[in-house]
Amino acid sequence: MGKISENKSAASCSGCFAWGQLPGRFCRGCYTYGQQHAVGECVGCRRQVPVDDKHGYCRLCRVQATWAIKASGKASVIDPGSG
Predict the structure, then answer these.
(1) What is the mean pLDDT of the segment spanning 31-35?
(2) Residue 83, pLDDT above cutoff 50
(3) Average pLDDT for residues 35-64, to the nearest whole number?
(4) Which of 61, 69, 67, 60 minimizes the C-alpha distance to 18?
Protein backbone atom coordinates (compact mmCIF):
# COMPACT_ATOMS: atom_id res chain seq x y z
CA MET A 1 0.00 0.00 0.00
CA GLY A 2 1.71 3.11 -1.23
CA LYS A 3 1.65 6.77 -0.33
CA ILE A 4 -1.27 8.80 -1.66
CA SER A 5 -0.32 11.53 -4.13
CA GLU A 6 -1.57 15.04 -3.35
CA ASN A 7 -2.80 15.33 -6.96
CA LYS A 8 -4.86 12.14 -6.87
CA SER A 9 -8.59 12.56 -7.47
CA ALA A 10 -11.14 11.44 -4.91
CA ALA A 11 -12.73 8.04 -5.52
CA SER A 12 -15.01 5.50 -3.85
CA CYS A 13 -13.59 2.41 -2.11
CA SER A 14 -14.65 -0.79 -3.89
CA GLY A 15 -15.12 -2.52 -0.53
CA CYS A 16 -16.96 -0.08 1.75
CA PHE A 17 -17.85 2.79 -0.62
CA ALA A 18 -15.92 5.29 1.53
CA TRP A 19 -15.10 8.42 -0.45
CA GLY A 20 -11.73 10.15 -0.52
CA GLN A 21 -8.19 10.04 -1.88
CA LEU A 22 -7.45 6.33 -1.86
CA PRO A 23 -4.10 4.60 -2.37
CA GLY A 24 -5.73 2.15 -4.84
CA ARG A 25 -9.16 0.58 -5.40
CA PHE A 26 -9.64 0.12 -1.65
CA CYS A 27 -9.33 2.27 1.48
CA ARG A 28 -6.64 1.17 3.94
CA GLY A 29 -9.18 -0.63 6.15
CA CYS A 30 -10.64 -2.69 3.29
CA TYR A 31 -7.18 -3.39 1.88
CA THR A 32 -6.06 -4.84 5.22
CA TYR A 33 -9.33 -6.76 5.64
CA GLY A 34 -8.84 -8.23 2.17
CA GLN A 35 -5.33 -9.39 3.04
CA GLN A 36 -6.70 -11.32 6.04
CA HIS A 37 -9.91 -12.80 4.56
CA ALA A 38 -10.79 -14.83 1.47
CA VAL A 39 -13.24 -13.55 -1.15
CA GLY A 40 -16.72 -15.04 -0.92
CA GLU A 41 -20.38 -14.02 -0.98
CA CYS A 42 -21.30 -11.80 1.97
CA VAL A 43 -24.38 -13.12 3.78
CA GLY A 44 -25.50 -9.53 4.39
CA CYS A 45 -25.14 -7.73 1.06
CA ARG A 46 -24.54 -10.71 -1.27
CA ARG A 47 -21.51 -9.03 -2.91
CA GLN A 48 -18.41 -11.05 -3.85
CA VAL A 49 -15.88 -9.47 -1.48
CA PRO A 50 -13.53 -10.60 1.32
CA VAL A 51 -15.66 -12.09 4.13
CA ASP A 52 -14.82 -13.25 7.65
CA ASP A 53 -14.58 -17.00 8.24
CA LYS A 54 -16.76 -17.08 11.35
CA HIS A 55 -19.93 -15.32 10.17
CA GLY A 56 -19.50 -14.71 6.43
CA TYR A 57 -19.88 -10.91 6.54
CA CYS A 58 -17.85 -8.34 4.62
CA ARG A 59 -16.17 -5.39 6.32
CA LEU A 60 -18.95 -2.97 5.27
CA CYS A 61 -21.73 -5.14 6.74
CA ARG A 62 -19.76 -5.74 9.96
CA VAL A 63 -19.13 -2.01 10.43
CA GLN A 64 -22.78 -1.14 9.70
CA ALA A 65 -23.99 -3.80 12.16
CA THR A 66 -21.58 -2.54 14.84
CA TRP A 67 -22.88 1.03 14.46
CA ALA A 68 -26.50 -0.16 14.61
CA ILE A 69 -25.81 -2.26 17.71
CA LYS A 70 -24.09 0.60 19.53
CA ALA A 71 -26.92 2.98 18.64
CA SER A 72 -29.63 0.57 19.80
CA GLY A 73 -27.89 -0.75 22.90
CA LYS A 74 -29.07 -4.27 21.98
CA ALA A 75 -27.25 -7.55 21.44
CA SER A 76 -25.26 -8.12 18.26
CA VAL A 77 -27.12 -9.04 15.11
CA ILE A 78 -24.03 -10.89 13.92
CA ASP A 79 -23.34 -12.77 17.16
CA PRO A 80 -26.43 -12.80 19.45
CA GLY A 81 -24.39 -14.26 22.32
CA SER A 82 -21.95 -11.34 22.41
CA GLY A 83 -24.30 -8.65 23.72
Answers:
(1) 94
(2) no
(3) 93
(4) 60
- Other Cβ atoms within 10 Å of 22 Cβ, number: 21
User: Which residues, 6+ apart, have CB-to-CB distance to 37 below 8 Å?
Assistant: 50, 51, 52, 53
Q: Which amino acid is at 13?
A: C
| C-beta separation of 55 from 37 below 8 A | no
Mean pLDDT of 4-33: 85
Q: Are strands 48-50 and 39-41 parallel, antiparallel or unpaired?
A: antiparallel
Q: Which residues does residue 72 pair with via DSSP β-bridges, in sequence order?
A: none
pLDDT over threshold 90, residue 46 = yes
